[in-house]
Amino acid sequence: MSGPTPSTLVLLTDLQSCAPGQKVRFLGCVDKYSITTATLRLTHNHPPSSPPRAAHVNIDHVLESIKRKEIDVGSWINVIGYVERRKEKGIFVQAITVWDAGNVDLEAYQKAVEARNLVA
What we know:
Elements lengths: L7 E2 L13 E12 L4 E6 L8 E6 L17 E9 L7 E9 L5 H14 L1
């Protein structure tokens, strides 16, 4: 039995080490939304001692299903998508699904992802 390729749960700050084409799942805070390019800039300040990293997430493929509150600046969202490499500098992801993270406990989330990745 075969199905879709599973996604790899990563922290936004670890996206830079993911291979182009890799399917990932991560959490980020909406910092900016560009209507003309349908691109969200998501940030996550982890670890807190380093400057926040950003990921540019194209949401073209999910525009019909995305809710307004999921693109509001300050909203925390979960993303599943594919890492892209472009000529521009930065981290780019093509989203295939996006959903509201709700009232997430960031510290517990960060610890859980790190612990999971240690055993993987």
